[in-house]
Structure formats: structure tokens, C-alpha cells
Amino acid sequence: MYPVLKIDNLQTHFHTRTGVAKAIDVVSFEIGKGEIVCVVGESGCGKSMTALSVLRLVPHPGRIVGGEIWLDGENLMAFSESEMRAVRGDRVSMIFQEPMVSLNPAFTIGNQLIEAVRIHRRVSRTEARERAIAMLRRVELPAPEARMDAYPHELSGGMRQRVMIAEALLLDPALLLADEPTTALDVTVQAQVLEVMVRAARESGTAIMMITHNLAVVSEIADRVVVMYAGRVVEQGTAEEIFTRPAHPYTRGLLRAIPSLPLGDDDGPRQPLYEMGGLVPSLTDLPPGCAFCPRCPEAFAPCDRERPPGFALGSTHAAACWLHRQEAER
Amino acid sequence: MLAYLLKRIVLMVPTLLLVALMVFLLVHFIPGDPAIVMVGGDATPEALEQVRRSLGLDQPQPVQFVTWFGHVVTGDLGRSIGTGIPVFETICERFPTTFVLTTLAMLFSVALAVPSGVLAAKFRNTGKDYLFMLVSLLGVSLPGFWLGLMALLVFSVQLGWFPSSGYVPIWQDPIAGLRYMTLPSITLGFFMAAVVARMTRSSMLEVMRLEYVTHARAKGLTEWSVLLKHALKNAFAPTLTTIGIQYGMLLGGAVVTETVFGLPGLGRFVVTAIYSRDYPAVQGCILFIALVYMFVNLAVDVLYKAFDPRVKY
Ligand SMILES: Nc1ncnc2c1ncn2[C@@H]1O[C@H](COP(=O)(O)OP(=O)(O)O)[C@@H](O)[C@H]1O
Ligand SMILES: [Mg+2]
Prior knowledge:
The structure holds two protein chains of two kinds. Chain A is of the alpha/beta class. Chain A contains twelve helices and twelve strands. In chain A, helix 5 packs across helix 7 (157-169). The two termini of chain A are 30 Å apart. Chain B folds into two domains: 2-73, no CATH class; 96-307, MetI-like (MetI-like fold, Orthogonal Bundle). Chain B is built from 13 helices and no strands. In chain B, helix 5 packs antiparallel against helix 10 (223-251) and helix 7 (144-158) crosses helix 8 (174-208). Chain B is globular, with a radius of gyration of 24 Å. The chains are: A alpha/beta, B mainly alpha. Chain A binds chain B through residues 52, 55, 57, 59, 85-90, 93-94, 96-98, 101-107, 115-116, 119-120, 151, 153, 167, and chain B through 210-212, 214-222, 230, 233-234, 307-310. Adenosine-5'-diphosphate binds at residues 14, 16, 21, 23, 41, 43-49, 59, 62, 283 of chain A. Residues 14, 16, 21, 23, 41, 43-49, 59, 62, 283 of chain A line the site of adenosine-5'-diphosphate.
């Protein structure tokens, strides 16, 4: 059986006047059927571009320059533009970060939902409308019939994001790309919206690629975690592996930077909030060695010269860090 | 909605009062004397004085203003000094021509400009876009009279497709009237189109960066649906404002076009009135034009909500 998504050595570059920004230097990972995979990393490390690459919607001047993207065993890179359109919104859908600006302000909720159905299904407007209302009910939007005639600005941020979730799951896609879907929301509604999204996706058997930098969210919902840094995957593993045995110093730094999460034995005294020093390197001028080396507290001999490949630490766990060379060879 | 309209119309009253005052002051500050224009430069002082008295120009200016405005309020704009005809009658006679000319020009320009603006935005920074930018730059910067004369020369004189002189109002004979209106409205429309197309292009580019456009693509829509449905409806709101401003301005009289094509519009009349210091005619026409402008503005504001539902009345 094929994984729902297999990203294989994907490279997405931005050709700008100042040089080539390697937004995705090289990224590979998989998402299994119905699985929830969280992609984490600091902002600017290529998470959104990874999601947009899957839909082949990387904005100008960005371009996918290498690698393959497999959806249920089909290579999307070989698809024509019209074949890609058939994929978008039907087999793979996406939720954006800002529900304030990702819904079109000039059209009613109903118009946008009915459109989403009718792009891919030959159904009447009434049928599409009923389908949309049923979906709004599933994401627990209050008074769904009345909301169909509302404009996005008439809804709260949480309600708008429920509409986005409803739209994304209308056609039971195989994969949902959720790009920080709750980051822009009030803390009080974040958890509810997240819960609704995960439940609705599970009901329709949809796998989720969830982009977030909120590790508390990751610990709640993730089956597996992909940690990205400067356009690369630096560590991936099951949620348990990442939270209990983080192998990359960057992952450890991320985990230490969240206050509410117990690390290992949680009886010990609360550590002060840790902040990783330094900045993400310029993507136009990546160092020859490990991109994290300049900020790494554990850097040693090979780190600034040679880029570490991914070392397998188990059947599901891998880290791109020289610390694990021996471990992996054993 | 109705309450909003009423409020806006009521608010026009103080604006009109202000316009009236400004027009009056401006007109009376232009050096020159309508009496001299009327009776000629070599008239005797006594004759001049008599004409002045008959026109009420011997009164102090505040009195003149109050008298004039009092009449305006009752719907009487006075008689033109130059023609002796009531100003209101002249407006009724001449404004329809200007209205038809400007409206046709506006329709032509929107039909030309909005698609070109969208295309230019779609092909931004490619040869097609640069060509479009060049043409629209020409449209903005070529003098209207030159464009009008060229159009006359080529299409009327050389090719004989359109009449080169004379005029039949469109409401008397639609076919013949349209033939007289075609060249003037295309010339005027081309100028408007250049500005509108640039506005369409830039607001399309503005909108196309936004997330809901990416979202529309992610739904599986074709690029044309994304542009023509999702982007254009939003981009059209600011464009509508530009169209409204231009339309309102030209409704006041597309003087150059009217002159080149010999159309009996309001613009030419106002200009003549200004030259001859025809106080009642200038004041009456400008007040009327201001009123028209305010109604165009109101129409734009009402229409705007159709394209941007976030607007609150
Ligand atoms: N329009 C653009 N022009 C140039 N570079 C861009 C553009 N958009 C994104 N990038 C590059 O892509 C990198 C990754 O962006 P993104 O995937 O949005 O990061 P994030 O992980 O925060 O979602 C950015 O750091 C930037 O260098
Ligand atoms: Mg992002």
C-alpha cells in the first residue's frame, strides 16, 4: 500500500535579485493514510512552502527545482496543470493561517462553499448547498443555514476557521494541509477549532499535514513529527520518540523553549524558559556544514564542514546530526 | 439603505451652499466686467452704469449673493447675460449631449480598460504587460485635442466612416446620433480607459498577492476563474472609485472633446460664459455640475458595497 503522501528530495528555490533562496533545500518525508503528521520549526524554515509545493502552488519567483511528490502512488510532478487542478481541493485541500484573509471578503460563505463542491462534483446548487450546510454542522458552526448568506467579515475568527475546515473537508480529501490553522485565533478558541478539525478529518479518513510551531498542539494531536530547520528535515519520528528521546540539538532546543511541557521526568524543578540563541541562517547563503551548527551547543569537529545525512535511530526515528553517526552505524 | 440615501441627500444641502458661495466669490474675483462685454469697450460711462444697474451689479456684493442665492433656492438660476435665455433652460438643452457623450465614453473605457488591466496583471512584467503599459501611458499623456483631431482626420475625412461636422441629438435619431457620437466618445473614452486600466492593473496586482487568491487556486479553480471571479471582484472596488471620479469630472463638460467635434455640450457653454463674464450662467452651470458630481459620488458609494460588502453605511 502506498503512503498518502511521499515527498522525495523536494527542492523549492526562490530566484531573487539577491540570489537563490533555498526555501526548501531538500526535504523528504511520508504521511500514511489517515495519519496526523506535524511539521514544526521556526518561522521561515520552509514549512508553508512545503505545503504549497505539494499543491504545486509555490508563488512566483519560487519554483520546485527538484524531487518528486507522490500522492497515493502517483507522481504529482508528472501531472499536467489540469490534472493538478483536479487534485487541488478534491484529493488534497489546504487551510491557511489567517482566516481573516484566506476567505474571499467579496463572496458569501455559501457562495464559496458551493463553489468548492461544484468545481469537482457535478451536482446541482441545491445539492451542493445541502452538502455544505451538513459540513458546517459537522464543524459545529452555530446556525449553519443562516451563516451561508453571511460574508466572512460578519463571522468571528474562530467561526471563519471552522468554515475553512468545512470547505477543506467537503469532498473527503485524502490529505489536508493545515498551515498553522489556529495560530491567528484567540487562545480560548484554538483548542476547540483544533479538536473540530481533527475529529472531522478522522471521520472522513483524511490524513493531516499540520504545520505549527506550537509544540503543545503537537503533543496533543500528532502521530508523527517532522522537525524542519533552514529548508531541511533535521529530525523525524513518532510523537513519542520526539518528545521523550529528541535526538537533534535543535529539537531539544525547541522542546526546552516551551514552558508547559514536561521534559523527561517532570518532578524536577521547572527550568526557566529557554531561548535558543542566534538566528536562522540566510537561505541564499547556507553554510557548507550543518545549517544549525552556528547555534548548536553541541557542535563538534565535522559539523561546520560536512552536512549530516539523516541517521536512522530506529524504524521510525531519524535525525540529521553527526552526534548520531556511531549510533546509526551500530 | 433608504435612511442612508436620505442622509446623504440632506448632507448635499450645506455642501451646495458652500459651493455656491465659492463659485460666487471666484466669479466675482475674476477681473473684468460683464457690462463692458455686453455694451462694448467704447461705451459711455453712463451707458455702462445703466447696464450695471439693470443687472444688479451696482449693489454691494453680499447683497448680490443673497439675491442670487434666494432665487437659486426657488429654482431660478437667472438669465444668461450673453444669450438672455434662462440658464436652467440652457442647461436642460445642453447637458443631455454632454451626458450622452460622457456616458458612452465611460462605457467604452470600462469595456476596454478592465479587460486590459486584468490581462496586464496576469502577464505582469512580461512583454505583453510592457506593451500595455506603454499604450496606456500614451493614452494618459497624449493631449485630448490631438487625439480627437487625428481621429477626425483618419476616420471622418480620409475614410469617411463618420460625419466630420454637424450634429443630431441621439434622442431624436438614435442611428444618426450615434454616428455623430462615436468618434468623440471613443476619443474621450480612450483617455479615460488609460487611467482606469492602470488602476485595474495595480489593484489586481495588489489583490493577487492576498491569501484568498492562493486559496481560490488551492480549491482547484482555473487561473481564469481565480482572476475573473475572485480577484477582479475585489480589485474592482477601487477601480470603481476611479471611474466615478473621472465620469463625474467629465460630466461637468468634456470641453476639449466637445470643441474638437463641435458638439453643443455644456462644457463649451461654460467656457464661453467664463470668457464673457456671464455671471449668472457660470454660477448656475457650476452649481448644477457640482450637484451632478455629488450624485455620481453617491451612486459610486452605493455601488461600492456590491463589490466590497465590508463597507458599512
Ligand atoms: N516571495 C518570496 N520571495 C523570496 N523568498 C521567499 C518568498 N516567499 C518565501 N520565501 C523564502 O522561503 C522561505 C520559507 O518560507 P515559508 O515556507 O513561508 O516559511 P515558514 O516555515 O515560516 O512557513 C523564507 O524564509 C524565504 O526565504
Ligand atoms: Mg508559514
